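User: quick one, fold this
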Amino acid sequence: VGRQYTQDTTFRHVLVRLKEAFKDLKASSIKGCIHKADRQLYKLEEYIKQKQDEDASGNVSDSESESDNNSDSDSSSNESSNSESET
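Assistant:
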C-alpha cells in the first residue's frame, strides 16, 4: 500500500484510492477488525490488572518489611538506652 505513494502523490490521488478501497469494503471486514481490536484490548486490560496486582502486593510486603525493620531498630535502641541507664 505504501509503495503507491511518492513525493508526487497529491491529496486528490489519495482521495480517489480511498474511495475505491471503501467502495469494495464489506461490513463483515469491519466487524472482524472491531472484534480483533476488542480481543487485543481485553488482553491488554488483563495484563495491566495483573501488573497492578503484582505492584500492589509487592508494595504491601515492602511496607511491612520496612515497618518490621523500624520496630526492630526501635527495640534495639530502647535496649541500648535501658542498658546505659542501668550502668
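User: anything notable?
Assistant: Residues 27 and 33 are 10 Å apart (CA to CA).
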